[in-house]
Amino acid sequence: MSYDPGEQAAIHVHTTASSYDLRVVRDGAEPVIMLRLDDLPGQAHPTPADCYATGCGWPAALRIPVDEAGPRASTWSSPGSPTSTAAGTSVSTSSSSGRPGPSRGPR
After folding, report:
1. Looking at residues 41-60, what average pLDDT do you find?
2. What is the pLDDT of residue 78?
3. Stretch among 11-15, 27-31, 82-86 having the lowest mean pLDDT
4. Sign of CA dihedral 22, 14, 16, 106
5. On the CB side of 84, how many CA atoms lie within 13 Å of its CA?
6. 8 A C-beta contact, residue 7 and residue 95
């Protein structure tokens, strides 16, 4: 998903873990960690059977502003981290413009 400067990235998380870590990475020839948040509180949410067509409807766990002075950013998110993997964690994103983002389920 790409974000324009001034937009907000809404992070929607479903997890059965009590906490999780989140990394926001600007992808490129050399990926750059733009934000690192550890030990965020986990919460499970119901997932509709037709989520593939209608979306999950999970509330935003957090919103991250995109720096107005920064470049357009293409980001991806991954549940867990090399030191802490939250089993049963799914992450999806949406922008403040309402565009849905990719959803990544458990690995």
Report:
1. 92
2. 46
3. 82-86
4. negative
5. 12
6. yes
In single-letter form, the type of residue at position 17 comes to A
Amino acid at residue number 9: A
Q: What is the DSSP string of the chain?
A: -EE-TT-EEEEEEEESSSEEEEEEEE-SSS-EEEEEEEEEEP------TTHHHH---PPEEEEEEPPTTSPPEEEEE-SS-SS---TTEEEEEEETT--EEEEE---
What does the domain layout of the chain look like in residue ranges?
2-97
CA distance 47 to 51: 7
CA distance 99 to 4: 12
Q: Kindly indicate the confidence band of residue 45, based on its pLDDT and cuts at 50, 70 and 90.
A: very high
Residue the block writes with tokens 């990235």: 9
Q: Measuring CA to CA, which residue among 24, 27, 87 is closest to residue 61? A: 24
